[in-house]
Amino acid sequence: MRIGLYPGTFDPITLGHVDIIERAMALVDRLVIGVAINRDKQPLFNLEERVAMVQAECDVIASRTGGEIRVHPFENLLIDCARDVGAGVIVRGLRAVADFEYEFQMVGMNRALDAQIETVFLMADARRQAIASKLVKEIARLGGDVSQFVTEPVKQALQARYS
Question: Which positions bind substrate (predicted)?
Fold first, then answer.
């Protein structure tokens, strides 16, 4: 069974993330969405809220595609998380060249830690390249409409948080 791991903080999950998840499903038999606990970041949503939002979105995707998606919170090294879930592939989404520079370094480090786990980059769909969770939160905080960047349940969660 080909198992892939798509890690991130997903604070919140956006349509850009959904696009990568849907396309990654074509590459693996099971996709694990690793929701990171990152102590260096101050997430808007706590871990339980982020996991619930990701799970809800993944349930919709899985019912539409028939694929297997699991949501897995983690706080350890990414490569250790990949081992924990049995992933042979780490899926990363790229929006711009700046993303690639950072990801290139991460791949080198991950390969040094475990050369058996590959990293696959998926370019964001052109319509989704500008979407970043940080910007979505800023738009929502200032009362802007985030409908074109997130699903309706995520939009409602943002509005509730900032109301």
Answer: 9, 41, 78, 92
Confidence of residue 19 (pLDDT cuts 50, 70, 90): very high
Residue 41 is a catalytic residue: yes
What was the pLDDT predicted at 115?
A: 96
Cα–Cα dist 10/33, whole Å: 10
Out of 41, 64, 127, 141, the active site residue is 41
Strand partners, 69: 31
Q: Cis link prior to 73 (omega < 30° from 0)?
A: no
CATH architecture type of domain 3-126: 3-Layer(aba) Sandwich (3.40)
Query: Whole-structure pTM over 0.90, yes or no?
Result: yes
In the set 50, 133, 137, 155, the catalytic residue is: 133
For the cut 80, the answer to whether the pLDDT of residue 97 exceeds it is no
- Residue 137 annotated as binding site: no
Provide the residue ranges of all domains of the chain, joining segments of one domain with +. Answer: 3-126
Was 69 annotated as part of a binding site? no
Known catalytic residue at 17: yes
